[in-house]
Design a protein that fits this description.
This protein is mainly alpha-helical. The protein is 44% helix and 8% strand. Among the domains are: 1-53, no CATH class; 76-148, Orthogonal Bundle (Tetracycline Repressor, domain 2), CATH 1.10.357.40. Helix 3 (86-92) packs antiparallel against helix 4, helix 3 (86-92) runs parallel beside helix 5 and helix 6 packs across helix 8. The radius of gyration is 17 Å and the shape is globular.
């Protein structure tokens, strides 16, 4: 889960929030499953203003920068297969060496959230060297995504010299973490790629 101000929101919920260009969705509009949309309109205005209108950073869920997020809807051809999103590819890679059948099940999940959850539920089958490999794997995926989508190439150049940040308050490794001082590893991958192509 991501945290925007005091409101917990998943990446999928933020993605809807951003692209629908609205500030409030009643829970009934999404099948009654998204309890966070029961919050008041004024709270969502506050969340929007604090999380979406920061001009100083390229946050994955800020304005037009959603393309850098691993959940963004960009298919990727990678290692001989077509992946629905970068998140699908990354989560499946946990199992390439240990359980290829699980990797394929990840590829066939219906959303990046589902791919993420499925991988977490099967951690016992992770590649024992996963922690050593994960950054290189993510970099491969990011490069494939960049090369295959002109919009992402264009958007990356538009970032100029601004810091690119995975705005994830719950992840100090891939994102900026709860104190906004995390490693931001995914953002760093995008910035390295930008330095190469600029």
């Amino acid at each position: 889960m991501h945290v925007c101000g005091s409101i917990p929101m998943s990446r999928a919920e933020k993605f809807i929030f951003l692209n629908a260009k609205i500030l409030y969705l009643d829970s009934t509009a999404v099948g009654g499953k998204h309890k966070h949309y029961d919050e008041s309109h004024s709270i969502f205005l506050l969340c929007y203003n604090t999380c979406m209108n920061n001009e100083d950073i390229v946050g994955f869920m800020l304005k037009d920068w959603y393309v850098f997020d691993s959940y963004a809807p960009f298919q990727i051809e990678w290692r001989g297969k077509l992946w629905p999103t970068a998140e699908h590819a990354f989560q499946a890679a946990h199992f390439f060496e240990t359980n290829p059948e699980l990797a394929e099940k990840v590829r066939l999940t219906r959303s990046p959230r589902e791919a993420d959850d499925f991988a977490n539920e099967n951690k016992q089958y992770d590649d024992p060297k996963w922690r050593e490999k994960r950054v290189a794997i993510m970099e491969e995926i990011v490069r494939a995504k960049y090369e295959q989508h002109p919009l992402i190439k264009e958007t990356l150049l538009k970032t100029g010299t601004m810091p690119i940040i995975e705005v994830n308050d719950n992840d100090s490794f891939w994102g900026w973490g709860p104190d906004k001082n995390g490693e931001n590893t995914l953002g760093a991958i995008w910035m390295r790629l930008r330095d190469e192509v600029a």
